[in-house]
Amino acid sequence: MKRIVAFFLTLLLLQPVMAQNELDALRYSQLNVVGTARYSAMGGAFGALGGDMTTLSVNPAGIGVFNLSTGSITLGILSASTDATYLGSTSADNKLNLNVSNAGFVARFKRKKAADKQWAWKSFHLGVSYNRTANFQRRTSVIGVNTQSSILDGWVNQLNSEGINYNDIPFDIVPGGVSAPGYMGWQTFLIDTAPGSVDQYLRNVLPYYGQTQQVTEVTKGSMGEVAVSFGGNFGNAFYIGGTIGIPRLNYELERRYTESDTQDTIANFSSFSRTDYLQASGTGFNIKFGMIYRPAKWIRLGAAIHSPSFFEVDEAYSSLIISNLDGAQYSQSTLDGAFDYSLQTPFRAIGSLAFVIGKVGVVSADYEYVNYSLARFRSRNYSFDAENTSVSNRLNWAGNIRIGTEWRIKSFSIRGGFAMNADPYTSQLNFDDTRYSLGVGIRLKRFFVDLTYALHRTVGDYAVYDLGAPNLASTVTLDHNVLTTVGFRF
Questions:
Q1: CA 235, CA 111: separation in Å to the nearest integer?
Q2: Is the distance from CB of 372 to CB of 395 less than 8 angstroms?
Q3: Three-state DSSP class for 343?
Q4: Cross-strand pairs, 470
Q5: How far is residue 345's CA from residue 356's CA, in Å, rounded to a whole number?
Q6: pLDDT tens, residue by residue, 107-139
Q7: How far from 186 is each of 180, 182, 201, 402, CA to CA, in Å?
Q8: Given 53, 118, 160, 337, which is the most exposed site by the fewest CB atoms within 10 A?
Q9: What integer is the mean pLDDT of 302-307?
Q10: How far apart are CA 81 and CA 419, in angstroms?
Q11: In the CATH scheme, what architecture does the domain 10-489 have?
């Protein structure tokens, strides 16, 4: 079921820019950890393996598997492309991004007194790492000719439902107002009053439909986490660890919506556009605990639990409408808006299993449980009761699966992985959100280098605008990620 919608709020086109709903909660709760090249190559299935810098943010017990102090850094090149189909027309766009996906250091403190004892603490470990946990880099273009509706219809309906006298429509428009788009449409001569009326409205342009609608949306930013971890190795069979996580989010959006008479068939109308700007930033914290157990040399079991992340988020937003009518241009912008709120993301639980085939191969799998309906908004200035109810009713739990394998020939390794995220609306597994990866690596005594190609494919619907029943475009987004990790062991 295609329920992966655009990151930008559908209701933004008819309701306040600052309105939070389940899409905001999902955007900051649905993680796709990138991490090291080795971690990504194996689909992120490292919960029972450990010994990788990314595990500090996934299963902290993995820090206890390091047999030497280690430092590494991972650089990534991301190419994100989106194909869209709307009203029978297709379009495509892409965006390139260079980033640091992971960087960190783990210090190992060996206990010499435990060297000859089987059941004793063999070593303790302290580590700090940064892991990129979500990517917001997108460029989306949607275009089509609409013969049935216009976004102006929604603005007119909103004004009519409010019944405001046109003499009372403000010129200084606050972007948080429900009728702000309608007010701006009035000020730019896109909307007029019905003959003889002061509070009933109709379109001043587009006497009939057939206009070209186009959306160009650019998003920037990412989520990343600084993880401070401590763990230990007991008897080379039991590993435990804990992490204090400091996640950081940065999200920017510029969305330009245009309706235009590209065929030059509509009298007294050339085009109009609405451009919305949104910038969000926030910092939070969380706590993670994990364990890995080796009942035999050929099998490993892992488990981890993540507390909710508690974010403090600041948003800034504004809108601009420009109309080109019969040779004249008019513009109206909102005042600059700002809003801050708290967000609590859901807790996560991860179970892991790995099979070790001698010194040549490993097959591993992770199952992650997360209940997105538990996300909550809070603010000192607003109750968020309706928004939190919407999150509870519309989102669901999800079970995400990650599978990976690695095979070695002396110092050379080849890896592959697959991951699937369940639909956060229905909890059903589907192929609309999948990741595929392939990588290689060389590991020497004191040095290692890994190279990975990872593909993240999402299929969904994009809301161009909402008139009760949304006008949807079908989208396919492909994230092509090339990762290189370089590390040293001491």
A1: 11
A2: yes
A3: strand
A4: 466
A5: 34
A6: 999 988 766 777 889 999 999 999 999 999 999
A7: 10, 6, 9, 52
A8: 118
A9: 98
A10: 20
A11: Beta Barrel (2.40)
